[in-house]
Amino acid sequence: MNTKKCFINGMGCISAQPTFENSFLENPQIPTNVVDFEVVKPNYKEFISASALRRMKSGIKNAVVASSLAIKDAAIHPEKIEAIITGTAFGGRQYSDEFLKRLVDYDEEYLSPTPFIQSTHNTVGGQIALNLNNHAYNVTYVNSAAAFSSALLDALLYINTAQKSNILVGGVDELSKKSIERYRLVDHYKLEKDKNFDILKTSSTGCFPGEGAGFFMLSKNQQENSYAELVDVQMKNDLKVEDLNQFVSSFLSYNELSIKDVDVLLLGNNGDENFDYYYEKIENIFTTSENIYYKHLFGDFPTSSAIAFWIAAKILKDQHIPEVLYKTAEKSQQKTYKNILLYNQYRGKDHSLILLKNV
Amino acid sequence: MKTKIAITGMGIISAIGNNVAENLKSLEAKKHGISRIENIDTKLKDEIFVGEIKRKNQALREELNLSKEDNFSRTSMLSLIAAKEAIKDAELNLDENSSIGFINGTTVGGMDIIEKYYNDFYDKEENRHYIHIQDAGSNTNLIAEHLGINQLVTTINTACSSAANAIIFGARLLQSGRLEKVIVGGADALCKFTINGFNTLMILSDEHNKPFDENRKGLNLGEGAAYLVLETEKSALARNKKPIAFLEGFANANDAYHQTATSAEGKGAFLAMKEALKMAEISPSTVDYINAHGTATENNDITEGRALQRLFQDKTPEFSSTKPFTGHTLAAAASVEAVFSILALQEQKIWPGLNFTKKIKELNLIPQQEVKTQKIEKVLSNSFGFGGNCSSLIFSRSH
Predict the structure, then answer these.
(1) pLDDT above 90 as % of chain B
(2) Which residue among A139, A182, A237 places its CB closest to the CB of B165?
(3) Is residue A62 over pLDDT 80?
(4) Cβ contacts of A150 on chain B, cutoff 8 Å
């Protein structure tokens, strides 16, 4: 089969780090006393009209800004975008919580339509299409930690088969107080403020919650400023740790690579002592790669793989890894970073492998 | 070379029946499932009509042999019932078919249960386990685990077109060669969140919904779940399984007009139908029946109608909306109506649009009002949602 390659031609990222100004790789910020990793807010007014801003909560705002940046970065005319694919597990969670609270507290009285409309997951993709006046394929994946990888896979299927040439794909989730409170009740999220930077050393359950948006212009055409190539995405809903080796090996061999070909392994460690052993296991498989992580700087959220995807593409383009991302002090001196593999899971579910290659 | 998408199984639960056979019987008898709401204590109970499944959560739990500690929301229990029927119908042995995928559509996810225990979570521990399923994906993951599916599993929420997009993504995964079989569809249970949400939009009717009627007053919400088993024709042939129908074409387009209203000319709807026909490589004149989105809102029916007239000129084939039977089942609507479309192909019958009395002035469209037997080879099914999401599917008969 004549498979078309898939290039990352533009990116936009809003997160708890200075990814918006694109300076993260040179200037990562060390979080102190943070429990919930809120985004560094861009100047939304530069991107969104004041009247629209009033109705928008952070997720949709960040998605609109990140997608605008990605489109601008790829220098593509919005009319040429042939699909808009969004991953978001929580959707408009702040509005959803607001509507839910009023519904319960006021016994189904005093409700207004805006929170309801803005709560649904596909409002993000719908809003982007509206702003761009784009009538193309538009879909929203919401499956927890698989939401972003599902969106990537969808895009990849279209590009590989050359059915579509230019696709906007992204992941976005927002923090919401009420949801955080509820999740804390069942130990999804941590509380220990002082330890957040040392997630590898914590011995507690759950993660530090975060938020953010990463959007990407993918294309079958390579450009001068292309960041990297998205080679493949593989998802597995449920995986026993003893089957991880097989999962990884078959993915690599399908892509005609060996373990040693992976230069950088970007892992989703979030400090949850109940589930981080998956990452230990995969590190045991990859003994020659540079093993890095990122959630200690960004917090964790279902579509945080979009942040990882942004980091990986940046590393491949700049050929530089900030020291703060390394899991251990000792690191090998790589000549060139060619292949980066992302591995993520959440609470033992939604395992994903994403492979990027330099261009 | 195009991979032919065979449908080898289906399952459904809706206000007109607990399985495919019961749904068929109701359609044939013109027996609707619209009533006042009984299972949810909502303030709106005397103001609205709904397509409610008259079984309490406890009854569903018992049928499924679930324990009280299980995290299943009503939505997920409806999913399980319909998905199990589809798997059985397709004669799939999940132990032997571990590489099967599952693409679910839902807007409610765990909301029906979260809203119920919202104030209890802080004081009492007993229902806290439901917090694990407050997002949609966790519900799908739970369903997958219960069904024994552990490979490619994901969830789509494009509001009222969710199941259509689940069907489309499933089909594309088969065409890409990544999967040979995939279970696709959607589910939504009635809950206060959605009922009140739609109420704030002022599009709920205080009567039985009457699609494409000049005096339509809005929609009736419904609940249900429906799933199809899709597989490559090659895979079906290899195991000697006769397809019940084929998925010939599909398309998704965005109206890009307004978050909750459709453009006057129904641009997204027109594009979705046109592209689906193009993919199926058929002309509009070969469509024998259209299962319209037809929610009976002021906005949908006029714009969908205009899009139909533009595409089919003055030769719109037999069409109807089956929402007067089931109510609008939101994320499940496209798969519920996919089952009805396949039943139309199998039975060679056009399903009636109930409650119609007066044609929309501006349109030349009169839905079929009786169960009409005729030759049906191709059925077009529409599903449109908030966010401008428009999807169309084309099913063809299995000979």
Answers:
(1) 93
(2) A139
(3) yes
(4) 154
Shortest distance, CA B351 to any CA of chain A (angstroms): 29
Alpha helices for B106-249 (secondary structure H): 111-117, 136-147, 162-176, 192-200, 233-238
What chain A holds in terms of domains, given with CATH numbers, is 6-219 (3.40.47.10), 229-357 (3.40.47.10)
Whether residues B170 and B221 share a domain: the answer is: yes
**Burial group, residue B328, by CB count within 10 angstroms (0-12, 13-18, 19+):** buried
Give the closest of A101, A137, A239 to B252, CB-based.
A137
CA–CA separation, A303 vs A297, rounded Å?
A: 15
- Beta strands per DSSP E along B235-366: 245-254, 289-291, 318-320, 349-350
Rounded Cα distance, A249 and B294, in Å: 49
Residues A47 and A106: their CA atoms lie apart, in Å, by 36
Task: Give the ipTM.
Answer: 0.98
DSSP per residue, A140-203? EE--GGGHHHHHHHHHHHHHHTTS-SEEEEEEEE---HHHHHHHHHTTSB---GGGGGGTTT--
Q: Are residues B200 and B268 in the same domain?
A: no
Report residue B68 as tokens.
């009280």
Is it the case that residue B380 has pLDDT exceeding 90? Answer: yes
**Residues 8 through 67 of chain A touching chain B, CB cutoff 8 Å:** none
Residues 6+ apart with CB under 8 A from B315: B284, B285
B31 and B175 inside one domain = yes
- Domain co-membership, B205 together with B323: no
Q: Are residues B74 and B144 in the same domain?
A: yes
Do B387 and A111 lie within an 8 Å CB cutoff? Answer: no
Report CB contact under 8 Å: B157, A120: yes
**Domain coverage including residue B389:** 247-397
Q: pLDDT at position A25, please?
A: 84
Please report, to the nearest 10 degrees, the dihedral formed by the alpha carbons of residues A173, A162, B279, B384 taken in order. Answer: 10
Is any Cβ of chain B less than 8 angstroms from the Cβ of A176?
no
CA dihedral for B99, B100, B103, B108, sign (positive or negative): negative
DSSP at B240: T
Q: What is the number of structural domains in chain B? A: 2
Please check the confidence at residue B338 and state whether its pLDDT lies above 70: yes
Instruction: Return all residues near A244 (Cβ < 8 A) that are at least 6 apart.
Output: A278, A281, A282, A285, A351
